[in-house]
């Protein structure tokens, strides 16, 4: 189950895993990335 507390919202046209902090949060703390159309 995905909860909002562990979800990173990122612009749809971006590349979230090029950001080191996003990659680390996903790997170490099991965060999820949700792409948003703005």
State the order of secondary-structure elements, H for helix, E for strand.
EHE
Catalogue the unreliable spans: none
Percent of sequence in beta strands? 25-35%
Spatial arrangement of strands, main beta sheet: 1-2
| CA-based gyration radius | 10 Å
Helix tally? 1
Largest sheet: 2 strands, parallel
Q: Kindly state the number of beta strands.
A: 2
Mean pLDDT comes to 88
Distance between the termini: 25 Å
SSE class: alpha+beta
> How many discrete structural domains?
1
How would you characterize the overall build of this protein?
The protein has one domain (4-36). It contains one helix and two strands. The protein has one helix spanning 20-29, and strands at 7-11, 32-36. Strands 1-2 form a two-stranded parallel sheet. The longest helix is centred in the middle third of the chain and has 10 residues, at 20-29. The protein starts with 6 loop residues before the first strand and ends with a strand. The mean pLDDT is 88.
